[in-house]
Write a structure and sequence with these properties.
single chain; Thrombin, subunit H; three-stranded antiparallel beta sheet; about 30% strand
Length: about 140
């Protein structure tokens, strides 16, 4: 009886250990993402972009009074646009792929079709929906 319980314990431990590992490449918001283990990079003070990506592009964003960004908390590329979340201002900016400001989505406030804050954003690729999550409103705002 004791040998059987030991075998069961070993099997359970093996299942738990194997379920904790995951593939470093996965799909998130319709985009392929790769987990990067910075502990495996030799020089801890600087990371070469070549070590983490094969393609890198910089997009200079237009800067006008109506599109000043205080903090970039999240960036989502939808294909045609960049969605940039600024939690400091509770604003969601939309720029095209050339960096030209298009508009903001939603507006901060109290009342219908307004949110008090933006906690997070998501983009559903196959439906082209933008979702704004607001903790203070305990709501999801869906933009088509």
């Amino acid at each position: 009886m004791n040998k059987i319980s030991i075998l069961i314990d070993i099997a359970l431990i093996a299942i738990v250990i194997s379920s904790c590992t995951r593939d470093k490449n996965h799909i998130q918001n319709g985009l392929k993402t790769t987990d990067i283990n910075i502990n495996k990079i030799n020089n801890k003070n600087h990371i070469s972009f070549d070590a983490i990506t094969s393609k890198l592009a910089f997009v200079r964003l237009e800067s006008k009074k109506n599109c000043y960004i205080a903090t970039i908390n999240k960036v989502i590329q939808t294909g045609k646009y960049y969605l940039i979340l600024d939690k400091t201002q509770s604003r969601l900016f939309v720029f095209d792929t050339l960096g030209t400001f298009q508009h903001t989505i939603g507006h901060r406030g109290i009342g219908p079709e307004s949110f008090r804050d933006i906690t997070s954003i998501a983009f559903i690729n196959n439906k082209q929906h933008i979702i704004i999550h607001s903790n203070r409103d305990m709501a999801l705002f869906i933009y088509l």
